[in-house]
């Protein structure tokens, strides 16, 4: 039974990056239904209109990062901690808002978090920082930009977009 749960949870939150030097885990909320289609259409439209890379496409789903990317020395501990953490959760809401950017490097769909979503992210960070390594500095910061990336690394096209 443990192995079944372990395999399921591993597939649920494991995200392996292509390339060297990146951490293999990312805890994210994946958009579903209408919000997923909306984000995909926007990412496709930016790509078509401005000739930029789509951030949402096959293999890179529309998501809201909650913690990471990070490393974990013991995957079984990670899965146990994550499953224990998830058992305590209730329904968490948020709204998709307008658009914004981060340092002319990322254009994103704004996520207006509920207090519950903000608390969830802080609790995840607090719990996972006990055993995770190589996580980004923003996981330690009180302020966090909740977002779904539509496109990034578009060079000089920022002003045009």
Jot down its keywords.
Cyclic Phosphodiesterase, Chain: A, 161 residues, alpha+beta, 4 helices, three-stranded antiparallel β-sheet, two-stranded antiparallel ribbon, single chain
Plain-language structure description:
With 161 residues, this protein is of the alpha+beta class. The chain has one domain: Cyclic Phosphodiesterase, Chain: A (Alpha-Beta Complex). Helix content is 35%, strand content 23%. The protein contains four helices and five strands. The N terminus is likely disordered.
Briefly summarize what is shown:
The chain has 161 residues and is α+β, with helices and mostly antiparallel strands.
**Element string (H = helix, E = strand):** HEHEHEEHE
**Which fold name corresponds to the CATH topology?**
Cyclic Phosphodiesterase, Chain: A
User: How many discrete structural domains?
Assistant: 1
Number of helical elements: 4
- State the helicity in percent bands: 25-40%
Strand content is: 15-25%
Coarse structural class: alpha+beta
Q: What average pLDDT do the residues reach?
A: 82
In the sheet with the most strands, the strands line up as 3-4-5
Cα separation of the termini: 51 Å
**Architecture per CATH nomenclature, i.e. the level-2 architecture:** Alpha-Beta Complex
Q: What global shape is seen? A: globular
Radius of gyration: 16 Å
